[in-house]
Amino acid sequence: MQLLTVKSCKAHNNDKSTNDLYVLAQICMNASPSNRAREVFQEKVVPQLSHNNNALRKLLLKGSFKIPGGVVYPVDQARFDEFFTALSCGLIYKSQRKPLPPAYSIGHIYHRLISNADAERQALHDGIDQYYDQEPLGIMNFGKPDTRNERIYTVNIHGLPDFRSSITIVHKFFGVFKVTSMLTRFIAPMTRNLNAKRAEMVLGQLQSCGYCGS
User: Fold this and answer.
1) Closest of 170, 147, 140, 113 to residue 5, by C-alpha
2) Cis peptide before 47 (omega within 30 of 0)
């Protein structure tokens, strides 16, 4: 699933290749039969299901159970978070031609997935879903990255350019599977305590990797 092209270091190439197919399969199963979801699943996912002794098939079926009219497939949120964090960092670089500074923490809301959030948090997620359902306002248009396969994936980035505010990225797959990535800007030195691992990865000027700057 090539959504955009960003130079990346070996570590991020490995992370992306590991998670891309799993995330694509889960999104297709959730969105099907909307638009091209079924077609993409047949073309991109089905040929991989039997590879490595059915590794992907087993991974997708792990913990699944039947309900009237369908099947529930548990989602590995850690894989989703890794995928969308890498994708978000790539989108930021494509928009600004520089990596995301370390003064940001990243979180994701998966609006189509069943959540165990309490009523208050679910109401917050619903409000975010509605508020960011439009094109960014002029002053809050962070930039438009050069994405690919817009029939499958579209994105809007809300925030002041040049990293002068927090940033909200709205991803939409097949027109129905929506993910909101919240990139919250903190004032140093709080950042290193809140997001030390990712901060270490992005310090310094970009040389080759659009995700971490290494």
Assistant:
1) 147
2) no
CB within 8 Å of 86: residues ≥ 6 apart: 12, 15, 16, 19, 211
* CA-based nearest residue to 79, from 25, 121, 147: 25
- Entry pTM: 0.80
Residue with tokens 């949120």: 77
CB contact at 8 A, 96 and 143:
yes
- Beta-strand runs (E) in 8-49: none
Summarised one tens digit per residue, pLDDT across range 31-59 is 977 668 999 999 999 999 999 999 999 99
**Cα 16 to chain centroid, rounded:** 11
DSSP bridge pairs for 56: none
Contact 101, 201 (CB under 8 A): no
What residues does each domain of the chain span?
1-214
**Which among 129, 134, 177, 135 is positioned nearest to 153, based on CA atoms?**
177
Residue 187 and residue 103 in contact, taking contact as beta carbons nearer than 8 Å: yes
